[in-house]
């Protein structure tokens, strides 16, 4: 076995979208950069999350839209072609091959070391390659941990023998299960329940709380639940799992017992019950940190509990905003900050400066790809009130907007903007309805740029589009 040593300005652990952005920004800043990856270059988003899940959901949502249009509804009355949907999903994951992503790293002059990377003291990373060789990397300026998260499973006895689905299995499954149990009520749970029900599964959702999408405006979860039930999903609130077993034999069925004594059987069970930081075996103990913990960072993404400021934690691993696009944003910020510090420059670290991740706390956008879609940015009404801001919620029925009525008959949706009455700007915006995901960037600009409500009157929405909701919200606010 070989043992080699290499020196770089920056070492990045984790070649998902976050690590790629850190590496590219650091390299653009003139720093020699290497990235370490133990699985596929491109990470969770490319192969087991964003891309495959949205590829599975798109046919379901397109069919739902088509069914709202007379003259088209009859043409899409039948079931989805499940093999074709799964084959298209496979295309979007590049059939779980990362040649294209590796080619991109080459194009931006970032080196790649495949293997399991672990911190080995300040500015040092030791990589065990698939062949058993050891590569010792030393960073002159910074090491960035971009290892993301893994699925959190409940402490149920014998769960490993059940072979449960997590988000990975749910997005990469090769066949449609006849019956699927989904445990959880958050984004992964509702999206995967939507996708697999549309593909032909009999889906039952088991939700510990009293509603879906608990971190969003209450009406969002209520409207999604109503639509899912109308589509045939059995949603049970206020229940927990007492035990689960896989019975084996020819049927190989799952048997789940709930805390209320009810028993359910299924072919597969998906646990969408949260995420853990992927930091258990990356050598945190060698730099005075606790393995398995989230990594606390400042607004330039530097780990606060490590001396000399050489360690960065970017993306989900710092628990600021567990979203791919937000992690990529952090990656751009961190890479630029690393390069600026290496050049001895003064950082632009004022709020909304080039080297601080201000949007993590002020303007985080998210789309939930269900029918109806949910799109939100900034604070909910409850969050704004808890923050002590004097706010007013302005609501409007999206179905009363001309563009929405043209989008599909019996359009059901709702919009809310939360206005900070003292600052005269928007604290948050939420849209629920078919196609509203494409409205979100305008809301993100309004919230992040702190556009005065009086100025928004002069941003004229085109008629007849769904974006006319902005005019209706502003009219309602003025009264």
TrEMBL record:
Which species expresses this protein natively? Actinacidiphila acidipaludis
Q: Which lineage? A: Bacteria, Bacillati, Actinomycetota, Actinomycetes, Kitasatosporales
> Which InterPro entries does the protein's record reference?
Class-I_Pyr_Nuc-Dis_Oxidored, FAD/NAD-bd_sf, FAD/NAD-binding_dom, FAD/NAD-linked_Rdtase_dimer_sf, Pyr_nuc-diS_OxRdtase, Pyr_nucl-diS_OxRdtase_dimer
Q: Could you name the domain of life of the organism this protein comes from?
A: Bacteria
**What family does this chain come from, according to its entry?**
Belongs to the class-I pyridine nucleotide-disulfide oxidoreductase family.
The protein, known as: NAD(P)/FAD-dependent oxidoreductase
Q: Which residues form the FAD/NAD(P)-binding domain?
A: 8-327
Enumerate the spans annotated as Pyridine nucleotide-disulphide oxidoreductase dimerisation domain.
364-470
Give the keywords, sorted.
FAD, Flavoprotein, NAD
Cofactors per UniProt? FAD
Q: Per its UniProt record, what Pfam families does this chain match?
A: Pyr_redox_2 (PF07992), Pyr_redox_dim (PF02852)
